[in-house]
């Protein structure tokens, strides 16, 4: 997911200031930040928190909010929704 966010938004790991991950309560084996560090996110702040529980909500879901520092005044983020997460924002699906 992180690699796709970087690629589709034409940003690099060095552009990233911080990442905040949220996970649903059923993700219990590892922090998403661990894998972010492994692919190069070593000079930015990473935080993991649990998503609030809502009945009948999407299971096994990881979300990430990326804060970047870019000089471009006209930067427009492309939001990435993979697999079942596309149900969260059908208005953004092409």
Secondary structure: elements and pairs:
Blueprint: H1 2-9, E1 16-23, H2 32-38, E2 45-50, E3 62-68
Parallel strand pairs: 1-2
Antiparallel strand pairs: 1-3
Task: Tell me about this structure.
The chain is 16% helix and 22% strand. It is of the alpha+beta class and 94 residues long. A three-stranded mixed β-sheet has the order 2-1-3, with helices on one face. The radius of gyration is 14 Å and the shape is globular. The two termini are 18 Å apart.
Roughly how many Å is the radius of gyration? Answer: 14 Å
Helicity range:
10-25%
List unreliable stretches of 5+ residues.
none
Strand order of the largest sheet: 2-1-3
Total helical elements: 2
Largest sheet: 3 strands, mixed
Secondary structure class reads: alpha+beta
Distance between the termini: 18 Å
Q: How are helices and strands ordered from N to C?
A: HEHEE
Tell me the fraction of residues in β-strands, as a range: 15-25%
Shape: globular
Write down how many β-strands occur, each being a DSSP E stretch of 2 or more residues. Answer: 3
- Summarize model confidence as the mean pLDDT: 90
